[in-house]
Amino acid sequence: MRTLENINAEWWQVKLNNIGEVVEDYEDIAQCLQIILTTPKGQDPHRPEFGSDIWKYIDYPVSEAIPNIIKEAINAITLWEPRVDIKSIKAEVDGSNVILKIDWSIKDTGEINRTEIRL
Fold first, then answer.
1. Burial of 107 (0-12, 13-18, 19+ CB in 10 A)
2. How far is CA 105 from CA 21, 26, 82, 84, in A?
3. How far apart are CA 37 and CA 74, in angstroms?
4. pTM summary value
5. What stretches in the chain show pLDDT beneath 70?
6. Distance (Å) of CA 62 to CA 15, 26, 73, 80, 90
7. pLDDT tens digits, residue range 89-100?
């Protein structure tokens, strides 16, 4: 468990829903992606354009929603997470949820990682 007392990374932030814990490096980026994609634009009063418009497609038919959700995810990540290059985004429907599988690489190293985000 990483805490504020033992941070060893350049990239870090407080871990969501875990008081006193932090995420570092790749986990930090994965958490940033989750925050970006699950924050509707207009919800951050200091950055009203922060987030994504994925929520606009919640009631669309799946065949229309998925391509629009992927487009919105690409736009939001490209704008708000400058540390990564998106390699691919795939979407799966699981009951009433959409799971985004995002393959991304760190711009400096090219190392590929995957983050899954349940919407």
1. exposed
2. 25, 10, 11, 5
3. 10
4. 0.81
5. 1-15, 17-20, 22-25
6. 32, 31, 16, 26, 13
7. 999 998 888 999
